[in-house]
Structures are given as C-alpha cells and as structure tokens.
From TrEMBL:
Residues annotated as domain Flavin reductase like: 19-177
Pfam family name, one: Flavin_Reduct
Organism: Azospirillum rugosum
Protein name in the entry: Flavin reductase (DIM6/NTAB) family NADH-FMN oxidoreductase RutF
Organism ancestry: Bacteria, Pseudomonadati, Pseudomonadota, Alphaproteobacteria, Rhodospirillales
PANTHER family (UniProt xref): BLR2425 PROTEIN (PTHR43812), FLAVIN REDUCTASE LIKE DOMAIN-CONTAINING PROTEIN (PTHR43812:SF2)
Gene3D superfamilies: Electron Transport, Fmn-binding Protein, Chain A
Length: 204
C-alpha cells in the first residue's frame, strides 16, 4: 500500500506511521518547575543525537490539559535542565502511570509510587529505580511545524552533563542491554523489551 501523509488516505482504522518507525526508545523525562514542583513524563519521540559531546532530544507534542505548554517543556524552559531516566521492564507499570494527564502541580513520582533521588549537576531529581540517568542542560527548544491546529509540536535539545549507571549492569567494562531490559514503544498500545542481543562486526 501507499498513502499520502498530508491527507492520511491509508484507509486503516489507525494511522500506521508510529507502527512503521519501531522500536522507539522511551525518554522518561524528569524536570522541576521554578517553584520546585517535580514532574516525570515518558516520551517515545526521544533519542540520542550526538556522541561528542553527548546530546539527546525529546518531543513533548500537544498542550497541557490545563492549557499552555506541557510541564516537561515549561520546566525545561524555565530552569534550563532535565534528566533522562531509562525505563526498564521492571518499571513498565510505573512508567505507564506517569503518563497520565493530570493537573499542574501533581507529582508524578508520587503518583506512580517512585522515588526521587538528588541529581549531581542539575536541580531536577533523577529516578532512583532507573538503572541509568542522564543529567542534561537545555541547548534549545524548537517549535515544530504542525498539521493539526489543536496540537503544537516542540523539540527539547539537551547536552548530557553527567551519567549515572548502576554498577550491576556493567559486565567486563560494558553496559549490558540484556541486564538493563529497556522498554521501547511500538505502534498503537504496543511495547517491547530488549532482552536478546546479538553482535555484528562492522566491515573494514
């Protein structure tokens, strides 16, 4: 099949775009407001975008239920900081709970039964239950074009300042994905977990 994205003439019950770009890593973003209120939200439009220096991005599309920017953008804009927490299989239910659309001022850490841990270089708390935390400084916040007048699109770009890695997931000097068991988003309401890994040598 072929369909045009500007008219979405695919004839399917659900838009297949997000089911075609898979798996997508989940950026479980923690921020804190200028008033000190923490926020925790997962985003599947997330990825690493550079190595030297390490950089990441996440896209909190849409608006807050109370109007205006989502807290994950608003807080990053106000404070210039955020933390990316790895969502592993053990935290799947808590990750999903933290995705709830709740009023401003609600602490999603408490809502999902999770533990805040002080970061080393930024004010935003990190997630204690996560095996990896990336402490980040905001580089830029970009406005993205939108084809839906009711939804905005934004991309938060960040430079990774420091990384916490749980010691038990490091084996022979390497971080092992099968021990991390990271969650990824597929299409629709589908998720996947990485617990099987293979190697390929790059051609010389």
């Amino acid at each position: 099949m072929f369909y045009r994205c500007d008219v979405n003439d695919h004839g399917l019950p659900y838009n297949p775009f997000k089911a075609c770009v898979i798996p997508r890593p989940i950026g479980w973003i923690s921020t804190v407001s200028a008033d000190g209120v923490p926020n925790l939200s997962p985003f599947s439009f997330f990825n690493a975008i550079n190595e030297r220096p390490p950089m990441v991005m996440y896209c909190p599309n849409g608006e807050h239920r109370d109007g205006g920017e989502k807290d994950s953008v608003k807080n990053a804009r106000e404070t210039g900081e955020f933390v990316v927490n790895l969502a592993s299989y053990d935290q799947r239910d808590a990750m999903n709970a933290s995705a709830a659309s709740v009023p401003r001022g609600v602490d999603e850490f408490e809502l999902a039964g999770l533990t805040k841990e002080p970061s080393t270089l930024v004010r935003a708390p990190r997630l204690k239950e996560s095996p990896v935390n990336l402490e980040c400084a905001v580089l830029d916040i970009l406005e993205l074009p939108t084809s839906d007048d009711k939804k905005s699109g934004r991309m938060v770009l960040g430079r990774v300042l420091g990384i916490h890695i749980r010691d038990e997931v490091i084996v022979d000097g390497m971080v092992r994905a099968e021990l991390l068991r990271p969650l990824s988003r597929l299409g629709y309401m589908d998720y996947a977990v990485t617990d099987s890994v293979f190697q390929l040598e790059r051609p010389k």
